[in-house]
């Protein structure tokens, strides 16, 4: 042991000694022989250990303490590690504290190029000669990769491990797929297989081209929707908002114990500001406490500490400058040429009626037995002469009444817009909540008088007089001489005009002409419309510029009286063909009308429909009873206008039913779901009643066509029953009365103003018309009497409440200048359908109204769909378990 060198005695025995050990300096041979590590030992660990080399030895050899010598990682060779152990004879000094050594930084080989045949035994630190060789080898490999099948196939840029080998052993009875792991190593080599990318693109294009195109279209639609939605209420950007706490004049000051408050509440000043600037002015009523300013020592800090009480946007007042180019669109039926024509016709008819009356009186003075026309038997007259005397006058008056009905429909439909276009606008009761079309026609003048809308009063009175009163009076003005008891079969009969009834006709026509003249004067007002606001689309196009729809929040299914209650605190304006909020009314004195909660118009309810159908049936039975029952003909003899009056009542009530069905048709189609775009511009209320049946038939709205035809038939019914003042038994074959005794001559067929043909034609036509009306009425009440709407329709407010949160509003941005035809084409290009039901609104909540499909659920009367739906934020709450 003594012959052994100290260095060899200090360490453990050598395991192996390399041939080049003699060349190693002596200092390095002081420890145990080092073991050369393979290249894998020089790789950095996958997970970093927070221990130094000496700490690792302490873990392997617990009897030894960790080394405290600060060894730099740069002193450690890269190719091998030499573990030297101090001699056990000299124990190490225990340090006072241990400093953990930082782990060695990872080392990489100089050659990082891709190699198809990896060499696991190549040294990490290569010399310059090896670097040159590796550079040439890398260049050759890159050239080879251009044609290498692995670079073109599925193995390129894949991790070359055991799992990616195609010649690996397979599991028995198991279907395996050769799918190498797709690790992207292209960043190391720098080469990219474009063929592989193009191949994948080709596969993707072949399989998902339709899906990508659909995604692009949806993205385009979403971007367009966001752009249009941002333009809703864009007109508010031009509003000049003024918050002026100071009053104008001492009258605006209110003295109190705690100080003084001044309130800006003078609309004249705001209106003057709007006229001066030419912009819409919005003023919020604010109250400023200036009690501190009464002291003499106030300063700027005191001013900044004023207490300001500002109301929300719902209490802002808007004032509008005068529009020098205010549009004044009106239909032809409301223009001065048409009204002048109606006035002229009324004056001509009044003059003609008086002329005929005077002619009849002159004929009587000349010949006491004479008259306008003389004959022995009515059948002796020519067809033209008989028709001119018997049917032409009343037929002409009925046609004239239809002309006035056309104007009546248009004036009632557009009067709310005339009210809105006034300088200061109108209240909701006078405009948005006004409904004349579904109201009883003979009560319309009273409602219009209450709101001082004189144009409606004039046109309603003119229509009622010309279409209802004048035909009745004219029917009673024509009489046959001599009286029935003095007539003889072979005696002369003459047609005379009763002066009293005739003067009634003349005066009525003069009143119609006067109403027409004042209506012409009233129609000089400007409507503020650029085109015909037909249907739902016409109203929606006007509501996209301002924030008027915010006033309808929470009114989805509210009845009309609740809508009126919420809107009565504001005036509304029609400015630049757009609906705007106007002046805020704090203390409204308007009474809320009690319209009830029934969503159906009165004539479409069974409590009105059943009595009306019964009335039609009774009238149909009364006609043959009064004509063929002996002794009953005395009623029509004493009251020759009775049947005409009864037929006029049928016509007036049917007209109300007709208006209700015409108004309700678009909403009924929307309630069925998936309505085409043209339904939004459908408006039968503005359609000429003569052309209505044809137009509805072309649109395949058969019930509307039948009801419109019934309205025309009701006019014909009035003409047919006007001549029923005879004994019908005399017109039965063989019972004409010829050859009877003199007592029966007064009932002879020859002693009446009817012929056999005219009597049976009028009788059969009257019965057929009544059967037709009864059948159509039954169909109407079977199809339209149920409740499929949340409230009554017919007002602008009802429509605005239906669409105030609809997503379809973006389709109406910048469309207020389109007419109905352009609007229809615009909506049809969108390719959407529309429904009435529950939908998710623009605010994210569920609403009931009209929107584009798909909707969440159809509407059912009396059922709140939102209460049957569990939303995401309700899951887990105590109400739902």
From TrEMBL:
Pfam families: DUF3433. InterPro entries: DUF3433. Residues 48-70, 109-134 have a biased composition (Polar residues). Keywords: Membrane, Transmembrane, Transmembrane helix. The chain crosses the membrane at residues 332-352, 383-406, 426-444, 456-474, 500-520, 610-629, 641-657, 702-724, 759-782. Residues 1-134 are annotated as: Disordered. PANTHER family: SPRAY, SPRAY-RELATED. This is Uncharacterized protein. It comes from Periconia digitata.
């Amino acid at each position: 042991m003594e012959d052994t060198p100290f260095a060899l005695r200090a360490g453990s025995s050598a395991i192996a000694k390399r041939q080049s050990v003699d060349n190693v300096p002596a200092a390095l041979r002081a420890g145990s022989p080092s073991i050369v590590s393979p290249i894998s030992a020089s790789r950095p660990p996958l997970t970093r250990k927070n221990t130094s080399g000496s700490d690792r030895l302490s873990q392997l050899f617990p009897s030894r303490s960790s080394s405290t010598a600060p060894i730099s990682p740069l002193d450690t060779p890269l190719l091998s590690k030499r573990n030297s152990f101090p001699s056990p004879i000299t124990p190490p000094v225990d340090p006072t504290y241990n400093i953990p050594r930082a782990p060695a930084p990872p080392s990489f080989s100089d050659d990082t190029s891709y190699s198809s045949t990896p060499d696991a035994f190549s040294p990490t630190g290569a010399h310059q000669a090896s670097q040159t060789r590796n550079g040439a080898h890398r260049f050759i490999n890159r050239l080879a990769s251009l044609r290498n099948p692995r670079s073109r196939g599925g193995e390129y840029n894949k991790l070359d491990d055991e799992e990616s080998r195609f010649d690996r052993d397979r599991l028995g009875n198991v279907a395996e797929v050769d799918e190498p792991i797709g690790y992207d190593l292209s960043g190391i080599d720098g080469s990219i297989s474009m063929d592989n990318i193009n191949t994948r693109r080709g596969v993707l294009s072949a399989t998902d081209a339709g899906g990508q195109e659909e995604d692009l279209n949806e993205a385009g639609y979403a971007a367009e929707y966001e752009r249009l939605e941002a333009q809703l209420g864009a007109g508010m950007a031009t509003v000049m908002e003024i918050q002026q706490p100071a009053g104008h004049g001492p009258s605006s000051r209110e003295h109190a114990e705690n100080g003084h408050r001044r309130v800006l509440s003078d609309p004249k000043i705001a209106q003057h500001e709007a006229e001066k600037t030419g912009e819409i002015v919005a003023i919020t009523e604010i109250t400023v406490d200036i009690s501190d300013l009464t002291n003499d020592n106030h300063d700027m800090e005191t001013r900044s500490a004023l207490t300001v009480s500002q109301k929300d946007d719902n209490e802002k007042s808007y004032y509008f400058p005068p529009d020098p180019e205010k549009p004044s669109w009106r239909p032809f039926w409301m223009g001065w040429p048409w009204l002048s024509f109606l006035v002229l016709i009324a004056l001509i008819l009044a003059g003609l009626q008086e002329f005929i009356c005077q002619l009849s009186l002159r004929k009587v003075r000349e010949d006491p037995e004479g008259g306008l026309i003389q004959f022995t038997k009515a059948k002796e007259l020519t067809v033209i002469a008989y028709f001119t005397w018997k049917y032409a006058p009343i037929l002409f008056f009925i046609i004239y009444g239809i002309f006035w009905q056309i104007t009546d429909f248009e004036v009632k439909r557009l009067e709310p817009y005339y009210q809105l276009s006034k300088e200061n606008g109108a209240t909701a009761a006078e405009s948005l909540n006004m409904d004349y079309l579904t109201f009883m026609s003979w009560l319309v003048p009273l409602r219009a008088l209450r709101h001082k809308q004189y144009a409606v009063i004039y046109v309603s009175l003119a229509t009622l007089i010309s279409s209802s009163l004048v035909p009745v009076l004219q029917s009673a003005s024509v009489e046959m001489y001599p009286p029935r008891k003095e007539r003889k079969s072979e005696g002369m009969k003459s047609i005379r005009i009763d002066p009293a009834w005739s003067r009634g006709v003349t005066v009525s026509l003069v009143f119609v002409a006067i109403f027409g003249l004042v209506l012409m004067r009233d129609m000089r007002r400007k409507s503020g419309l650029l085109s015909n606001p037909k249907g739902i689309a016409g109203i929606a196009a006007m509501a996209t510029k301002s924030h008027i729809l915010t006033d309808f929040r929470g009114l989805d299914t509210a009845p009309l009286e609740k809508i009126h209650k919420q809107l009565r605190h504001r005036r509304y304006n029609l400015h630049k063909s757009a609906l705007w909020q106007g002046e805020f009314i704090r203390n409204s004195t308007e009474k809320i009308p009690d319209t009830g909660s029934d969503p159906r118009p009165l004539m479409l309810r069974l409590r009105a429909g059943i009595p009306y159908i019964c009335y039609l049936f009774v009238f149909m039975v009364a006609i043959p009873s009064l004509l063929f029952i002996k002794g009953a003909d005395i009623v029509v003899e004493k009251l020759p206008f009775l049947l005409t009056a009864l037929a006029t009542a049928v016509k007036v009530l049917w007209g109300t039913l007709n208006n209700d069905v015409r108004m309700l048709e678009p909403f009924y189609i929307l309630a069925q779901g998936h309505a085409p775009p043209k339904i939004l511009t459908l408006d039968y209320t503005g359609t000429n009643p003569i052309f209505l049946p044809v137009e509805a038939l072309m649109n395949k709205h058969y019930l509307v066509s039948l009801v419109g035809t019934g309205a025309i038939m009701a006019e014909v019914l009035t003409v047919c029953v006007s001549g029923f003042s005879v004994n019908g038994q005399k017109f039965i074959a063989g019972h004409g009365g010829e050859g009877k005794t003199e007592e029966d001559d007064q009932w002879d067929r020859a002693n009446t103003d009817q012929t056999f043909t005219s009597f049976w034609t009028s009788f059969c036509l009257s019965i057929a018309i009544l059967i037709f009306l009864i059948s159509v009425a039954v169909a109407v009440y079977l199809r339209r009497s149920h409740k499929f709407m949340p409230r009554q329709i017919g007002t602008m407010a009802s429509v605005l409440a239906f669409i105030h949160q609809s997503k379809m509003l973006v389709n109406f941005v910048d469309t207020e200048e389109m007419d109905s035809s352009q609007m229809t084409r615009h909506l049809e290009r969108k390719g959407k359908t529309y429904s009435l039901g529950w939908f998710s609104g623009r605010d994210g909540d569920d609403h009931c109204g009209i929107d584009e499909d798909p909707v969440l659920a159809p509407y059912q009367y009396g059922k709140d769909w939102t209460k049957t739906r569990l939303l995401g934020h309700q899951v887990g709450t105590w109400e739902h378990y």
